[in-house]
Amino acid sequence: MRILSGATASAQALFSRLASLWRATEEVERLREENRALREAMAFAAAEAHDATVRLHNLRGFEEFRQGLPAHPLQIVPATVVAADPSPWRHSLIVDKGSAHGLRPGTPAVWGSSIIGRVAAVQPRAATIRLLTDSLAGLKVRVARTGDVGVLRGTSDRDGLLQLKWLYLHPVATGDLVVTSGMDPTVPAGLVAGRVVQAPAAKDHLFYDVKVRPLIDLNRLSEVLLVLYRLPDAERLLEEQAR
Hints:
Helix content: 25-40%
Largest sheet: 6 strands, antiparallel, barrel
Order of helices and strands: HEEEEEEEEEEEEH
Strand content: 25-35%
Number of strands: 12
Number of domains: 2
CATH architecture of the largest domain: Beta Barrel
CATH topology of the largest domain: Thrombin, subunit H
CATH superfamily of the largest domain: Rod shape-determining protein MreC, domain 1
Shape: elongated
Distance between the termini: 116 Å
């Protein structure tokens, strides 16, 4: 009986230790799950804070630019990028704002004080933005230092460079800033289009062959501002001249 009683006590002690170990294992797993959930919450909060900082920087950059504009009617529509054209030959984005928000073809898209493209097609609640780097994109611009006006065209090349054409009056220097010319009634003057990175000392035939790089990485945009800027009288005059 003593032997049986001792064996029973030993078994009970063993089972008690196993039960304690099982409870400890469950507690460790619970703590691990809480720690994992906490890390995910912290990562989400950090991402939200980063997005808010980027959004604020974007808005501040454009507000600084807008302060130097004449008192023309101007509104901004923040938009989120929801898709990008997967084709290597087309550089465009789709955003979650459209004609219901005042957008129309030609509406400029900006990040801070830099123009990144223009609306190419629009639906009531979505729009396609053709980026400056797209080979179909074209924009009248001005070299800030000299005032010379040319046309900035995309190339769809992987290097992301733009071609500045039809400059012939003054030589262009590497580092020159290129800005919107103000010769389009839907695009404010002075938005930064890029900076000259290749500028030959001599003309190629009649014109300078100039390469420009955008200041913004157009492949990493998650949000943009659409600028509703219109000069109705100028638009009507252009329409009359086109008839």
